[in-house]
Amino acid sequence: MEIDSENMDVPVAVEMDDALDLDEAVIVALGCNDKGAWRDCTEALEAALARFRAEGIDVVRRSSWWRSAAWPDPDDPPFLNGVVIVRTDHDPHALMAALGRIEEAFGRRRGARNAPRTLDLDLIAYGRRSGDLDGLILPHPRAAERKFVMGPLAEIAATWEHPAGGHAAGLAETAAIGRDAAPTR
Question: For residues 134 and 170, what is the distance between their CA atoms, to the nearest angstrom?
């Protein structure tokens, strides 16, 4: 797949949907700590967001970008992370396949777990679906433990409730992984 490099410096504009039902929210986390072919991770993440629409994924809310030390190895390059709420006609498995195609187009190679990567796209939640959906576990089994996920999510949906309990804002406060995560503003 080829990536359209035009307008990569322009952040994806999002018209915030204040009427969004958080019980139906489809939440995707983005991360990067290997800029690959881009000037920096910000540019790579913005380009990834620009690619969502071509895959039938519309961003309806987005967080700012958050920086944190790499985990579990803080000697790896720092991460830039963010969260988006999207609308799509894809079911959860088709959405995961679309996210995988985007990762692949951005040079994502699966190797050692938690190794540096050009793009990491995780499906955090798909509405209130919960449990093992034929190998896809929803909500993301480790999202609530990660400040670099819950912090950006709290920015755009503080009252989103995790199916196992807790709102995004509270989970961001208690998350044990990525405690140094903070918005880059």
Answer: 30
Q: Which residue has the tokens 């929210």?
A: 25
The answer to whether the CB of 60 falls within 8 A of the CB of 86 is: yes
Are 62 and 84 in contact, with CB atoms under 8 Å apart? yes
Q: What is the pLDDT of residues 55-111, one digit of tens each?
A: 999 999 999 999 999 988 889 999 999 999 999 999 999 999 999 999 999 987 766
Query: 2 is written with which tokens?
Result: 């080829």
DSSP state of 161: B
State both tokens at 160.
């989103």
As a residue count, the chain comes to 185
Burial 88-112 (b: 16+ CB within 10 A, else e): bebebeebbebbeebbebbebeeee
Q: pTM for the whole thing?
A: 0.89
Extract the tokens encoding 153.
């999510």
